[in-house]
Amino acid sequence: MHQLYFTPGPSALYPTVNLHLKDAINKGYLSASHRSATFKDIYKETENNLRTLLSLPDNFSILFTSSANEVWERLIQNTVENKTLHLVNGAFSKRFADIATDYKKEAVVYSAKEGEIVNVGEIKEDNEVELVAITHNETSTGVSQPLEDIQKLRNKFPDALITVDAVSSLPIVDLPYDLIDSAYFSIQKCFGLPAGLGVWIVNNRCIEKAEKLENKGIITGSYHRLLSMYKKGKDYQNIETPNVLGIYLLGKVAGDMLTKGIGQIRNETIYKAGVLYYGLQTHPLLNPFVGNERIRSHTVCVFNTKGESERIINELKKNNMVIGSGYGSFKSNHIRIANFPATGKEQIEMLADKINEIQ
Ligand SMILES: *Cc1c(COP(=O)(O)O)cnc(C)c1O
């Protein structure tokens, strides 16, 4: 029986993936050399579609990694000599700070209570900080750091590089690229694609920083050094034999999103989030985990459950609907519902109706 997935990664496939997958096979793209003109054209199309979809300025490059986890490590290796600063709103932002510590960097950590965000007003200016790490959408708890905070951080850290984890919010979030230096996502979240590819967006300041570190004799990694990735990327290639299928599908789905219109997709996301948060408002077993509406995620909706979350999850499974459990220690008392572009308005309405039947 066909299942409807509302899980926050891996997540429901974008409706056109089936078609593009068949095309990729039929056209022989998956056997073509990754040094061929065929591959370079695929890379070029993906890059161009992403640039347009995200309104990415020319001073940013698009690079491919294995996933977002890899980007964390590459950022630490290639842009930090001594000191980082992390806004930790949950498990994913904490993991990035831990990687900085693994690399023996001095990681300054500001942590929020679960379900809340770091108050940027409390962050002290510090001109030794080289990299400021923000998580726009914390998938573990369903909080979003407001975009206004990026401006405040830029004012406090005029010289540092600012990087934004937008793994579960791009392309829904319209990031202020003039204020940041790097952003990244994995394709199995908002883009509704099979897992196995990360996208790392970097500007010239990141490249210059990596050069500076290398000139000092600092090791910035080997096969995925930022500078070698950047150089190959300029020629629409990767260092390694890459995830050609992932790169191809990403370009095609980004193209489909452009055809639909990113404005339309963003509006639908807000509408569907409303169906979930307001449609389930009077549910006797549920209430939104994030109390403050201003910081509630539009793309990952998290609810506290009265009693075990498993009961609701299992009831929905009987209707072939799959939602996420809580993350980590919240496993049994939260549910998480992905509100990504792959999921239509009717599906979210149907889900809310079904959940309301569970009492
Ligand atoms: C899923 C996720 C990650 C990690 O992505 P991987 O693809 O597993 O590397 C990082 N940050 C956030 C906010 C996420 O949701």
TrEMBL record:
InterPro entries: Aminotrans_V_dom, Pser_aminoTfrase, PyrdxlP-dep_Trfase, PyrdxlP-dep_Trfase_major, PyrdxlP-dep_Trfase_small
Pathway per the UniProt entry: Amino-acid biosynthesis; L-serine biosynthesis; L-serine from 3-phospho-D-glycerate: step 2/3
GO terms, molecular function: transaminase activity
Enzyme nomenclature, EC number: 2.6.1.52
Residues spanning the signal sequence: none
Cofactor: pyridoxal 5'-phosphate
Pfam family, one: Aminotran_5
Domain Aminotransferase class V: 26-327
Keyword terms, alphabetized: Amino-acid biosynthesis, Aminotransferase, Cytoplasm, Pyridoxal phosphate, Pyridoxine biosynthesis, Serine biosynthesis, Transferase
Catalytic activity of the protein: O-phospho-L-serine + 2-oxoglutarate = 3-phosphooxypyruvate + L-glutamate; 4-(phosphooxy)-L-threonine + 2-oxoglutarate = (R)-3-hydroxy-2-oxo-4-phosphooxybutanoate + L-glutamate
PANTHER family: ALANINE--GLYOXYLATE AMINOTRANSFERASE (PTHR21152:SF40), AMINOTRANSFERASE CLASS V (PTHR21152)
Family statement: Belongs to the class-V pyridoxal-phosphate-dependent aminotransferase family. SerC subfamily.
Descriptive protein name: phosphoserine transaminase
